[in-house]
Amino acid sequence: MKKESFWSKPGTRSVLASLVAILIGMLAGGIVILIVGLTNPSLGIKGAWEGIRLVVAGLFATGRDATGALTFGFNPVTFGNMLFRAVPLIMTGLSVALGNKAGLFNIGAPGQYLAGTAASLYIALSVPTNVIPSWLVWLLALLCGMMAGAIWGAIPGMLKAFLNINEVLACIMTNWIAANLVTWFFEGSNLKNVLEGTKSGYIYKTATVMNDIVADGVASTVGANVPEGATIVATRGGIATSKLGLDRLFAGSQVNGGIVIAILLAIVIYVLLSRTTMGYQLKACGANRYAARYAGIQDRRNIVLTMALAGSLAGAGAALYWLSGNTEFFWSTYQSLPSEGFNGIPVALLAINNPIGVIFSATFMSMLSVCGQKLTELTAFNEYITDVIISVIVYLSAFMLVIKTWISRLHKGKAVNK
Amino acid sequence: MSFLIRQTLVYAVPLMVVALAGVFAERSGIINLALEGIMIFGAFMGVLFVRFVQQWGWFQAAFEAKNYLALQGFCALAILFAALMGAVFSLLLAFAAINLKADQTIGGTALNLMAPALVLFFIRILANQNTLNMYTGDAASWFMLKKAMFGYGRKDEMGFLGSTFVDKVYVATYICILVFVVMAIILYKTRFGMRLRSCGENPQASASLGIDVIKMRYAGVVISGALAGMGGFVYVLTTANCSANGDVAGFGFLALAVMIFGNWKPGNICGAALLFGLFKCIAASYSTLDINGDGVYALKNLNINTNIYRMMPYVITLVVLAFTSKSSRAPKAEGIPYDPGMR
Description:
A: mainly alpha; 2 domains; 3-stranded antiparallel β-sheet; two-stranded antiparallel sheet; 16 helices; globular; B: mainly alpha; ABC transporter involved in vitamin B12 uptake, BtuC; 70% helix
């Protein structure tokens, strides 16, 4: 009897529905790979089988052995990179989940993410570290990234609250406005990477140390090597998130303390939603804005606050990603929006908007992206198959309710059969 | 001037068609957020069609013999194929939104994620790079109208009308305009169009008059998909040299903005598309734009940043939304799954 009640719990059914969505998504990806493998004589069934194995277990792929067969085992690099890439996804996932809890579909996460990117990169690269200690600059950059995201989220929030404009449309517009503003902002800035002249179109990594110097009366910016006889006006950059010893655990990967902060923030949001008055008001607004107003909740204030909070989470995701120190931002972004923002949507949907669930669904998503990378590295297939899987999962989560009824019907059917 | 008009039309026409695609879906009661994704998919399929048919060699002879009529027919076929594939792809949205009563916003977002993913996956496998080009030649030499085709010599002038609307113009642009007009008439002046629009306002009332709401909504979404697929292909044909790379640079979302700005009405959409097309055109070429032919680049001298022109359409849309949200003519039942029992 006890077991029965466990299966009929709504929470269980939700988790089951998510798992079904994941399973069908993986299956769809596998079928696409199989079709491509069978129609492509150079790949064949063997190539397809390799592809499918990598999609499922790419996280454990260690390469190929002498005979050319795939080898599997614990790989600290892929594990660490999975955790590193999960950080922005956790944050944008939290952002979308928070919006959903308040009945607002925050498709504006890409724009908020960009706003956070611009603000945090600007602070990290322009505040002189010889005046302010670098840990304080790091903190400042994170806070400013959150602030910028909050402002960018508050705009559609205000449009929704005061002018009753659909937040989805407002968010789509503000996304593209952000893409153009950020391009404009960096186009005119002195943060474009010219010291390492290898790639064009990128902003300095935040770990790059720059010295503004005056030599023979001429001001210029150089890297860490300051020429003799020059006076240093200011030192900038050299900002990187603390590794917190995680780099020893996952040697050779990009993981850093960001993952710890992201998990802490997820817990904070969980507490906020389930244990505070504010969280209650927010959910009440989401359930029925007008009923909440009738109950004495300031619905307008709540909508703006929710969107600002959601924006600040997306902004924090951007800050934590770019402040890692060794990632480069491509600044001419007016034609494309960051996928981290959009991927917050599947993360939140898979987690059924539960902040703790977001941690796991985001890790799953970043695992998929690591698998995709392995797929590109080791086979003739490429990483876009993981995006196909993600999109199938989003598609399925659009009718999660139907899947849930199927599951409960299946369960009921079994009970009758007994 | 003729360059400005020509180039504005190049940007405005796909916008117009895709915005009308949005209208068809929304007027039938389904929010089609997937316009961008369907455009990407249609563009890829159109390019793929051109590439494969070129490989078969049927049109190589026509190209060498400069048989322009055959080449334009080929182009029209590719547009048709893109439209067809767009319609097929949009069935995914229709099925989820109509049969499964899914959240239409999320469904549309899923298609927007799926299209570039699928398309890039196959492009990488087919072409071993991130762009799929024509098999041979370029779009301009195969499909563009040139004054030489009408017996004009290299130095002959075609006059203002000729150089604006004939020389260096794709016939695809006119096909789109024609389709736009025909579809707008269908939506407003035929029984089918009336019925479709009624399903977006009050489906239960429509059903009570014997209209099959499900069928009408399917029709709305599929027509929407066809128009968006076609718009996507025409966009890459005219602006990206007939090559697909899983991206239409936010054009689908811009079309959504055009639709709102045009208040869901074809006439206004036409105007809005021209305005937004003008902004796109200015943003792309303002530094070398000589409007009245006096050799002065007036817009460049204004010293306004490109990015301002680029973001203008979105800002204008937000402002218009802010002022008109109270009198908006958005279909009343859009986004609400049809429930026959709710009367």
